Amino acid sequence: MKTSPYPHLQQRDAKPVTVSDLARMKAEGEKIACLTAYDASFAALEDRAGVDVVLVGDSLGMVVQGNSTTVPVTVDDMVYHSRITAAGLSRAFLMTDLPFLSYGTKHDALETSRRLMGEGMAQMVKFEGGEIQADTIEHLSMRGVPVCAHIGLQPQLVHKMGGFKVQGRGDAAQTMIRDAKLLEESGADVILLECVPSALGAEITANAKVPVIGIGAGPDTDGQILVIYDILGLSPGRKPRFVKNYMDNADTLDAAVTEYVAEVKDGRYPGAEHAFS
């Protein structure tokens, strides 16, 4: 039998990925490969490449709708894109963002989650914020909603933060460490860390009992996530430091996405050139 250059495809379980599988992967040291998708075609591409988690991100406001931030994205937008992305998946786990100000109270968050899971077919919701979101996470978790807590750079707060900047340097690192612990204790099933120094990403991951997914958070998180259009070289303008274009050495979209998953799984991505100090 011819040996595949992508052992993750030979070894992967064909059964749908669950929250329990993600926890097991962390416990066993298996890296979790994640990508964004916004429709059925890209979802199917990622599914056959062995992506473990597909995120319908509110990043669609920028890469699909052409806005300069994620702020204009609506709940209706997220429900629609989540539903059509779910249609392309058979194995990968589907996570969907709660858009800006759709979770201002825990009751708002529950209603938005109901729509994203009921109408949008999401299996987990993700939203931004540290300590302020602890009560909301507990409220959702106790009612059966799987939650990913997003800390570090929070794109929905770009106007408040003054731009897309690395977070967690200096004294802010200890605040983020405390936030991660509190959100986990409140019921978060996954933590997403965006644009933080590698050392901080490693420390939060080592102390967390739940999987930690990084984007610009260094090589030591339990998994990695990128925007699909970024890794295929489709996004216009300046690319973030942590982005790698997988079309540079690929003949097809399938080969590019499969190589991304393989590099996450075996630790080749991210390299030092994709990390922050």
Order of helices and strands: HHEHEHHEHEHEHHEHEEHH
Strand count: 8
Annotated CATH topology: TIM Barrel
Proportion of strand residues = 5-15%
| N-C termini distance | 44 Å
Fraction in helix? 25-40%
CATH architecture call? Alpha-Beta Barrel
Q: What is the CATH C level class, in words? A: Alpha Beta
Trace the largest sheet across and list its strands.
1-2-3-4-5-6-7-8
Mean of residue pLDDT?
94
Instruction: Show unreliable segments.
Output: none
Structural class based on helices, strands and sheet pairing = alpha/beta
Keywords: Transferase
Protein name: 3-methyl-2-oxobutanoate hydroxymethyltransferase protein
Organism: Salinisphaera shabanensis E1L3A
EC number: 2.1.2.11
Structure, described:
Helix content is 39%, strand content 14%. Helix 10 links the parallel strand 6 and strand 7 (212-215). The protein starts with 6 loop residues before the first helix and ends in an 11-residue tail after the last helix. It is α/β, with parallel strands linked by helices and 277 residues long. It has one domain: Alpha-Beta Barrel (TIM Barrel). The longest helix has 15 residues, at 172-186. The chain contains 12 helices and 8 strands. Strands 1-2-3-4-5-6-7-8 form an 8-stranded parallel barrel, surrounded by 8 helices. Its EC number is 2.1.2.11. It comes from Salinisphaera shabanensis E1L3A. It is an enzyme of class 2 (transferase). This is 3-methyl-2-oxobutanoate hydroxymethyltransferase protein. Keywords: Transferase.
